[in-house]
């Protein structure tokens, strides 16, 4: 159990792909840390470089205060769950869980006892004699977790461990994994491209884009105050409205509508400067009656989200989205008014969040 | 095809069954006609000679002389003679050495090593190594045996010239070792390619998982690679054991000599049947070889099946 520290970590693949670009990151001891980002942004590469399965082109990996940049994967004292679980098909569950202990030359009786103990904790006690081929996907995932737990490594690395599970099992596994991690208190880095997963499970998370970290923070911070337009557009089940605007005194002019300056940017804007006005559809109050300081337009699309509707207004040619509770959804072509919440709307200048 | 266009209700049960058994819809006769040429070829060149050998093995047929004109049945005399002949047994033992040394150990180990070392390599080195190994395999036997004789010859052989040695004559001093090394060199390509393909089937995450646990190279082979390619190893062993067992190329290098030290069974048959003229006896030895091959094949196939 120990902190992971990355200093100026760079990874260039043969062929010139720069998958990590001098990346700095500190993950404190015991934290459940999620790496999130679009496909190809370097999440897997980062995880594999921490594990030592890829050699860093530059920079350093420090685990528990020890610089392990040049150390073989086996010497780093970390354990990893692979996306395909990587269970050995010719070994039964006990042998699979005990495998890392066997490599460490732990006596057979000790390691079998340990495997039984960890297996029982993960509800595998009746399956210990089976081979991986005789287990369901969820059970295989738990065996992979058990193997990691049995090692008592300093840190755990998970590469999309839930992506092979069906939607329901995934929710269960998510809760289970989070609980388990908090009980064990082992530093864990978790790669996912499912933002709901990251928001739900992580203590802190990083959003990556093409080899860079664009924001680090708690899920709440990242969701409520995306540090830049990339994160703003990436996070959230429905993407944030990012509207070009110009500052006019103490209002912001967006698509020929005058909006109040959001609280977070009060007093920080210069008259006449070009900015991007951001507001999540969830924080964009919809009304059929005229409201002061709102975005006015015609309803062009209505999408059903289940318990609510996503309404797209055409505001002088600019699409603006708002979430409307069920039963209040407008008809296509209606005149609509969207009033952004002042305490939730954000201003971006040159792509970066404006805030005190 | 005509049946396929019938409406389904016309096809009663019996018809449906026949239709399934006869997927191409040709009927027994026409289907037979398609298979006939192949069957004729197989009978002519495989079944008939095999039966002919069996028949000969029970006779005193010779290449020349009275017994050539009118061979007589001698029962199992030829077999008794073979099994009591020390030369036959020494040939069997030499064949065993040859198969074990050059195929089971040499080609398998060398082929696997090359495949293992080259597994994640790309580019010119891999292509050159594989090209050379495969070249040794595809060159005609006559050419490669000449090359090896030229290499190992006592008088002005390449090896002697390179070593500045006089009178170093591997083919005379270490004849069995020479043909074993020759056959390893000659046949490693097949094993290399087979293992190359097999190693591609080992999931990288399994190897990485073992590496993370701290497994050494040997432990990775034992715990991850070998269990995955076990079937390939057995198939490989089966094929190259049989090929090597029946291989006649050693004759081109040493002609069975010196002193019969490299007279493996295939060479032995040639010597007794064609040089010695005892076709009946040679046929009996061939039959014994066939039986040994069958035993070897059944042994490996059993192992393969026990995998499941
Ligand atoms: N072995 C490799 N050789 C060359 N380039 C690679 C290699 N592996 C990954 N890349 C490249 O590096 C970049 C980062 O890849 P990486 O696998 O880390 O992405 P990721 O964030 O895990 O994506 P995903 O969510 O799709 O798994 C990509 O542009 C990819 O094409
Ligand atoms: Mg990935």
Account of the protein in words:
- Chain B: One of its GO terms (cellular component) is plasma membrane.
- Chain B: InterPro entries: MetI-like, MetI-like_sf.
- Chain B: Keywords: Cell membrane, Membrane, Transmembrane, Transmembrane helix, Transport.
- The complex is a heterodimer of chains A (356) and B (308).
- Chain A contains 8 helices and 21 strands.
- With 356 residues, chain A is of the alpha+beta class.
- By secondary structure, chain B is an all-alpha fold.
- Chain B has 2 domains: 56 residues, no CATH class; 229 residues, MetI-like fold.
- At the A-B interface, β6 and α2 of A face α11 and α12 of B.
- The structure holds adenosine-5'-triphosphate and magnesium ion.
- The site of adenosine-5'-triphosphate (ATP) has 13 residues of chain A, from α1.
Task: Please provide a brief summary of the model.
The complex is a heterodimer of chains A (356) and B (308). Chain A is built from 8 helices and 21 strands.
What keyword list fits this structure?
heterodimer; A: 356 residues; alpha+beta; Rossmann fold; OB fold (Dihydrolipoamide Acetyltransferase, E2P); 2 domains; six-stranded antiparallel beta sheet; 8 helices; 35% strand; B: 308 residues; mainly alpha; MetI-like fold; 15 helices; globular; disordered N terminus; binds adenosine-5'-triphosphate; binds magnesium ion
Give the SSE map.
The complex is a heterodimer of chains A (356) and B (308).
Chain A: E1 4-12, E2 18-27, E3 32-36, H1 43-51, E4 58-63, E5 66-67, E6 78-81, H2 93-103, H3 108-121, H4 137-151, E7 155-159, H5 167-184, E8 187-192, H6 195-201, E9 204-209, E10 212-217, H7 219-224, H8 229-234, E11 241-248, E12 251-254, E13 257-260, E14 274-279, E15 284-287, E16 295-304, E17 308-315, E18 318-325, E19 335-340, E20 346-349, E21 352-353
Parallel strand pairs in A: 3-8, 3-9, 6-7, 7-8
Antiparallel strand pairs in A: 1-2, 1-4, 4-5, 9-10, 11-12, 11-14, 12-13, 14-20, 15-19, 16-17, 16-19, 17-18, 20-21
Chain B: H1 13-21, H2 28-57, H3 66-69, H4 77-84, H5 86-117, H6 124-138, H7 141-152, H8 158-163, H9 170-173, H10 175-199, H11 204-213, H12 217-245, H13 250-254, H14 265-275, H15 279-306
Helix pairs in contact in B: 2-15, 4-15, 5-10, 5-12, 6-10, 10-12, 11-12, 12-15, 14-15
């Amino acid at each position: 159990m120990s902190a992971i520290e990355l200093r100026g970590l760079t990874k260039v693949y043969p062929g010139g792909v720069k998958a990590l670009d001098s990346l700095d990151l500190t993950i404190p001891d015991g934290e459940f840390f999620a790496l999130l980002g679009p496909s190809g942004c370097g999440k897997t590469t980062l995880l594999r470089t921490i594990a030592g399965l890829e050699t860093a082109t530059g920079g350093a990996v420090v685990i528990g205060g020890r610089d392990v940049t040049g150390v073989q994967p086996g010497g780093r004292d970390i354990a990893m769950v692979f996306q395909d679980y990587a269970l050995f098909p010719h070994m039964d569950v006990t042998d699979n869980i005990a495998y890392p202990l066997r490599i460490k030359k732990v006596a057979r009786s000790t390691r079998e006892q340990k495997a039984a103990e960890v297996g029982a904790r993960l509800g595998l006690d009746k399956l210990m004699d089976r081979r991986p081929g005789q287990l369901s996907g969820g059970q295989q995932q738990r065996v992979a977790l058990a193997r990691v737990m049995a090692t008592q490594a300093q840190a755990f690395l998970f590469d999309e461990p839930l992506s092979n599970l069906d939607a329901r099992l995934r929710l269960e596994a998510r809760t289970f994994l989070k609980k388990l991690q908090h009980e064990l208190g082992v530093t864990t880095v978790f790669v996912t491209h499912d933002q709901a997963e990251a928001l739900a499970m992580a203590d802190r998370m990083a959003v990556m884009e093409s080899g860079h970290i664009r924001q680090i923070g708690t899920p709440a911070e990242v969701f409520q105050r995306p540090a830049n337009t990339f994160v703003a557009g990436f996070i959230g089940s429905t993407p944030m409205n990012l509207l070009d605007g110009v500052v006019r005194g103490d209002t912001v002019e967006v698509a020929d509508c005058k909006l109040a300056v959001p609280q977070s940017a009060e007093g920080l804007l210069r008259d006449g400067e070009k900015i991007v006005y951001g507001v999540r559809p969830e924080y964009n109050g919809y009304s059929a009656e005229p409201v002061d300081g709102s975005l006015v337009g015609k309803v062009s699309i209505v999408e059903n989200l289940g318990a609510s509707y996503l309404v797209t207004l055409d505001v002088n040619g600019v699409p603006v989205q708002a979430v409307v509770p069920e039963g209040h959804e407008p008809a296509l072509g209606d005149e609509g008014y969207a009033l952004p919440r002042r305490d939730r709307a954000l201003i971006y200048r040159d792509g970066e969040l404006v805030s005190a | 095809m005509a049946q396929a266009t019938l409406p389904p209700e016309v096809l009663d049960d019996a018809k449906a069954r026949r239709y399934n058994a006869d997927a191409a819809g040709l009927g027994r006769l026409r289907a037979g006609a398609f298979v006939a040429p192949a069957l004729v070829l197989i009978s002519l060149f495989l079944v008939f000679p095999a039966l002919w050998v069996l028949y000969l093995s029970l006779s005193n047929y010779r290449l020349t002389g009275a017994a050539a004109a009118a061979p007589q049945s001698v029962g199992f005399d030829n077999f008794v003679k073979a099994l009591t002949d020390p030369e036959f047994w020494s040939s069997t033992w030499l064949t065993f050495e040859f198969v074990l040394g050059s195929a089971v150990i040499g080609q398998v180990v060398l082929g696997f090593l090359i495949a293992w070392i080259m597994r994640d390599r790309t580019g010119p080195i891999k292509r050159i190594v594989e090209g050379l190994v495969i070249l040794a395999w595809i060159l005609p036997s006559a050419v490669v045996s000449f090359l090896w004789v030229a290499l190992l010859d006592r008088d002005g052989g390449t090896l002697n010239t390179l070593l500045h040695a006089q009178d170093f004559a591997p083919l005379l001093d270490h004849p069995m070792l020479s043909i074993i090394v020759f056959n390893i060199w000659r046949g490693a390509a097949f094993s290399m390619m087979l293992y190359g393909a097999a190693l591609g089937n080992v999931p990288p995450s399994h190897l990485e998982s073992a590496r993370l646990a701290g497994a050494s190279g040997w432990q990775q082979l034992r715990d991850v690679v070998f269990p995955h390619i076990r079937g390939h190893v057995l198939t490989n062993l089966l094929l190259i054991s049989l090929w090597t067992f029946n291989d006649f190329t050693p004759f081109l290098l040493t002609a069975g000599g010196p002193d019969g030290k490299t007279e493996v069974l295939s060479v032995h048959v040639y010597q007794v049947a064609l040089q010695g003229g005892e076709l009946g006896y040679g046929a009996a030895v061939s039959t014994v070889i066939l039986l040994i091959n069958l035993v070897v094949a059944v042994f490996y196939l059993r192992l393969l099946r026990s995998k499941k």
